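The material for today's practical consists of a large collection of protein records. A record pairs a protein's sequence with a compact description of its fold. Instead of coordinates, the fold is spelled out as a row of discrete tokens. We will come back to this pairing of sequence and fold again and again. Here is such a record, shown just as it appears in the course material.
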Amino acid sequence: MSIRILIADDHSITREGLKVMLNKMENFEVVAEAENGRIAISLARKLQPDVVVMDINMPDLNGVDATRQIVAELPQTRIIALSMYSDRSYVKGMLKAGVSGYLLKNCAFEELAEAIQTVMRYQTYLSPKISEIVRDEFVKMMGSNEPNTVELLTDKEREVLQLIAEGKKTKDIAELLHISVKTVEARRSKIMEKLNINNVAGLTKYAIREGLTSIE
């Protein structure tokens, strides 16, 4: 039986390249592609793939929050982060969200194939550089009890924060999330209160620093 794979990446050339190479592999089948986290969640619900190859920085909904929702709803689906970023904030975010693997985009295709086979055995696959970061972070955490501020936010608040950082207007956010303008404003106020940030510019900088948005 083929391993059914969903590719989530905002770059079409990356999706197409991965699709061609993965479909050439015996027992691999790419069943769908998604250009952002929101579409990835919808397709995962519909198709229930075995593995999702997930980019992190994507518009509308990032890979961290998309991973968190897919893992919660479809625990049998394994997710592999495939990103150009090795920053600690990205690695921590994806691991806490529940990924089964984390690779960098400069890896060889053979490594991705190996990672897919590994996670299908209910094991974790981390590229060597990511393993080093995880070890260093574990040592650091052992000596600190300081909470990560982004963990203070709910899933819905993180969604609003990303969209604010991407420059979307309150009305547009309300339409995209199917909520009222007042609800968006209430969530924005709550976010500012929790993070102790009192302007949109500050929220944008925070979202970029924490890896919640693809804006450079």
Observations:
- Residues 149-209 form a domain with the Arc Repressor Mutant, subunit A fold (CATH 1.10.10.10).
